[in-house]
Amino acid sequence: MASPRTHTALCLICGLEEHEIGKLHCFPSVFERSRLWQEKMNMVFTGHTLRHLRIYSNHFTEDQYLHRINWRLCQDAVPTLQPAS
Length: 85
What we know:
13% strand; alpha+beta; 4 strands; single chain; 16% helix; two-stranded antiparallel ribbon; THAP_Znf
């Protein structure tokens, strides 16, 4: 029997792994929200929601969170912080 495939979640923007950073957020499943996230992160819009991709919590400002303790984003949260070069 084949062993289960392990998958390491990475931040699309900075490439850090989930175990290095704590919390990764999925792209929104709503098409327009996903488009807005892609534009804010200076990505070329793909026409897809990118639901399978993740963004590290540090790409969001503090006011984008309902509860920082459980990492819950506001419904209208948009990543705005680019990683340092």
